[in-house]
Amino acid sequence: MAARAFAEAVRRAARAYFAFAVRRPEMFELIVRHDLLNSAGGNLREITVPWFTALQAVLARIDGNQDPTRALALWASVHGIAVLTARRTTEPIHDGRLNAEAALTFLLDALVPASSGSTG
Protein backbone atom coordinates (compact mmCIF):
# COMPACT_ATOMS: atom_id res chain seq x y z
CA MET A 1 0.00 0.00 0.00
CA ALA A 2 1.36 3.41 -0.92
CA ALA A 3 2.21 5.90 1.79
CA ARG A 4 -0.44 8.24 0.40
CA ALA A 5 -3.09 5.54 0.89
CA PHE A 6 -2.03 5.11 4.52
CA ALA A 7 -2.24 8.88 5.04
CA GLU A 8 -5.72 8.99 3.53
CA ALA A 9 -6.81 6.06 5.71
CA VAL A 10 -5.64 7.90 8.84
CA ARG A 11 -7.48 11.04 7.71
CA ARG A 12 -10.69 9.08 7.06
CA ALA A 13 -10.45 7.39 10.45
CA ALA A 14 -9.93 10.74 12.20
CA ARG A 15 -12.94 12.22 10.42
CA ALA A 16 -15.06 9.17 11.32
CA TYR A 17 -13.98 9.46 14.99
CA PHE A 18 -14.95 13.15 14.95
CA ALA A 19 -18.26 12.51 13.17
CA PHE A 20 -19.22 9.75 15.61
CA ALA A 21 -18.50 12.02 18.58
CA VAL A 22 -20.68 14.76 17.14
CA ARG A 23 -23.49 12.43 16.04
CA ARG A 24 -23.52 10.21 19.15
CA PRO A 25 -21.94 12.18 22.03
CA GLU A 26 -23.28 9.91 24.78
CA MET A 27 -21.96 6.74 23.13
CA PHE A 28 -18.68 8.49 22.37
CA GLU A 29 -18.35 9.38 26.04
CA LEU A 30 -18.82 5.74 27.00
CA ILE A 31 -16.21 4.37 24.63
CA VAL A 32 -13.51 6.78 25.72
CA ARG A 33 -14.20 6.87 29.46
CA HIS A 34 -12.66 3.70 30.81
CA ASP A 35 -13.57 4.74 34.34
CA LEU A 36 -17.29 4.71 33.53
CA LEU A 37 -17.23 1.14 32.26
CA ASN A 38 -14.81 -0.52 34.68
CA SER A 39 -17.55 -2.61 36.27
CA ALA A 40 -19.45 -3.33 33.04
CA GLY A 41 -17.49 -6.48 32.25
CA GLY A 42 -15.57 -5.17 29.23
CA ASN A 43 -11.96 -4.16 29.47
CA LEU A 44 -11.41 -1.10 27.28
CA ARG A 45 -7.77 -0.93 28.28
CA GLU A 46 -7.19 -4.22 26.47
CA ILE A 47 -8.43 -2.52 23.29
CA THR A 48 -6.60 0.78 23.73
CA VAL A 49 -3.05 -0.59 23.61
CA PRO A 50 -3.42 -2.55 20.34
CA TRP A 51 -5.40 0.32 18.79
CA PHE A 52 -2.72 2.86 19.68
CA THR A 53 0.04 0.51 18.49
CA ALA A 54 -1.79 0.12 15.17
CA LEU A 55 -2.15 3.90 14.80
CA GLN A 56 1.55 4.34 15.47
CA ALA A 57 2.41 1.63 12.92
CA VAL A 58 0.21 3.15 10.21
CA LEU A 59 1.75 6.57 10.76
CA ALA A 60 5.21 4.99 10.47
CA ARG A 61 4.20 3.42 7.14
CA ILE A 62 3.58 6.92 5.80
CA ASP A 63 7.04 8.36 6.35
CA GLY A 64 9.08 5.97 8.49
CA ASN A 65 8.72 8.08 11.65
CA GLN A 66 8.10 5.61 14.50
CA ASP A 67 7.99 8.18 17.31
CA PRO A 68 4.87 7.45 19.41
CA THR A 69 4.65 11.15 20.27
CA ARG A 70 3.05 11.91 16.90
CA ALA A 71 0.43 9.19 17.36
CA LEU A 72 -0.43 10.53 20.81
CA ALA A 73 -0.54 14.12 19.54
CA LEU A 74 -2.83 13.09 16.69
CA TRP A 75 -5.17 11.12 18.93
CA ALA A 76 -5.28 13.84 21.59
CA SER A 77 -5.88 16.59 19.04
CA VAL A 78 -8.64 14.79 17.14
CA HIS A 79 -10.19 13.75 20.45
CA GLY A 80 -10.04 17.30 21.80
CA ILE A 81 -11.80 18.80 18.79
CA ALA A 82 -14.36 15.99 18.88
CA VAL A 83 -15.11 16.51 22.58
CA LEU A 84 -15.30 20.30 22.33
CA THR A 85 -17.67 20.03 19.37
CA ALA A 86 -19.81 17.21 20.76
CA ARG A 87 -20.27 19.03 24.05
CA ARG A 88 -20.91 22.32 22.21
CA THR A 89 -18.21 23.92 24.36
CA THR A 90 -17.10 26.48 21.79
CA GLU A 91 -20.57 27.74 20.85
CA PRO A 92 -20.59 30.68 23.30
CA ILE A 93 -17.27 32.03 22.05
CA HIS A 94 -17.20 31.53 18.31
CA ASP A 95 -19.97 33.82 16.98
CA GLY A 96 -20.21 31.56 13.94
CA ARG A 97 -16.55 32.04 13.01
CA LEU A 98 -15.10 28.77 14.32
CA ASN A 99 -15.40 25.73 12.13
CA ALA A 100 -14.52 22.48 13.88
CA GLU A 101 -14.14 20.58 10.62
CA ALA A 102 -11.69 23.22 9.34
CA ALA A 103 -9.76 22.87 12.61
CA LEU A 104 -9.71 19.10 12.11
CA THR A 105 -8.32 19.57 8.60
CA PHE A 106 -5.70 21.98 9.95
CA LEU A 107 -4.43 19.49 12.52
CA LEU A 108 -4.49 16.57 10.08
CA ASP A 109 -2.43 18.63 7.64
CA ALA A 110 0.06 19.31 10.43
CA LEU A 111 0.29 15.79 11.87
CA VAL A 112 -0.38 13.43 8.96
CA PRO A 113 2.11 13.96 6.15
CA ALA A 114 0.66 13.70 2.67
CA SER A 115 3.60 11.65 1.44
CA SER A 116 3.68 10.78 -2.22
CA GLY A 117 6.22 8.03 -1.70
CA SER A 118 5.39 4.42 -1.00
CA THR A 119 6.40 1.88 1.56
CA GLY A 120 5.91 -1.85 1.76
Report on the structure:
The protein is an all-alpha fold. It has one domain. It has 7 helices and no strands. The longest helix has 21 residues, at 3-23.
Q: On the 0-100 scale, what is the average pLDDT?
A: 84
Query: Which stretches are low in confidence, meaning pLDDT under 50 for 5 or more residues running?
Result: 116-120
SSE string, helices as H and strands as E: HHHHHHH
Put simply, the count of helices is: 7
Span between termini: 6 Å
Alpha carbon gyration radius = 16 Å
Q: Which geometry do the CA atoms define?
A: flat
Structural class computed from helices and strand pairing: mainly alpha
Strand content: under 5%
Domain count: the total is 1
**Tally of DSSP β-strands:** 0
Biggest sheet layout: none
Helix share, percent: over 70%
Break the fold down into its secondary structure elements and pairings.
Blueprint: H1 3-23, H2 25-32, H3 34-37, H4 44-63, H5 68-86, H6 91-94, H7 100-111
Helix pairs in contact: 1-2, 1-4, 1-5, 4-5, 5-7
Offer a quick outline of the entry:
With 120 residues, the protein is an all-alpha fold. The protein has 7 helices and no strands.
Features:
about 120 residues; mainly alpha; 7 helices; about 0% strand; disordered C terminus
